[in-house]
Write a structure and sequence with these properties.
Layout (H helix, E strand, L loop, with lengths): L5 H18 L28 E2 L8 E2 L20 E2 L8 E4 L15 E4 L11 E2 L5 E9 L4 E8 L13 E4 L7 E2 L4 E7 L4 E7 L13 H5 L7
Parallel strand pairs: 3-10, 5-6
Antiparallel strand pairs: 1-2, 4-5, 7-8, 8-12, 9-11, 11-12
Keywords: Signal
Length: 228
Amino acid sequence: MHCPSFKLVLSTVLAAMVVSTAVAAPASKYAAAPETAPARYVAHSADVSPKTVSGGKNNQMTPASPAAKSSHGSAPLHGNPGQTGVIINKDEFCLFLPRVAGGNIAKSEDSALAFCTKPFLPGAEDARPMPLGFIRTSHYLRNTEEDWVQVTGTFDRSQYLLAESDGGGQYDMQAPVGAVCSGWGAFVQLTEPDNEIFCIRCCKEKDHCPKNKSTHGCRGVLAGDFEY
């Protein structure tokens, strides 16, 4: 009796292996689904702000929207609701004033709101309208080298029931907290009911909006035109 040749046996084994491979389903196709969701469905830490604001459904805490940015680098376009001012020209600008007519300037440093000469000025759409007849004179100035704009002038304190005895005070991005001048990195404003003068400057760099001279008044801090 003859034994099958080695070549014949090897051919038979290889053929069986090919058939087995062809009918076996790829293991990866039917692999169990992972218990965790794919990465593209997981919130990325960079997409969710860690800050929260009150409100939302059932007064739950909801993620705060990131502040919009402007062409002035990282300068925010909008601050807290009602606390965003803007300077466009001598006739279109905003000032921060006490929330209630007759309020004291210095005592309102934590709660002052933006009031604008015209409603819905671009960048300050949620500001309040300036009291009618409040602004008497206004003078606009822009410094392109240091990159700031300002408005100085006079006002009629009686149109907002401000007291003649009110020596005034200073507002900036720290008082009230969250207040901004739309599109600029910093601002400083001084309001003097006793002298009926005001000044506000919005700057790209905070060094050009000095806020450490509040007792010097408008003429000592920003200078400008305060003629009637």
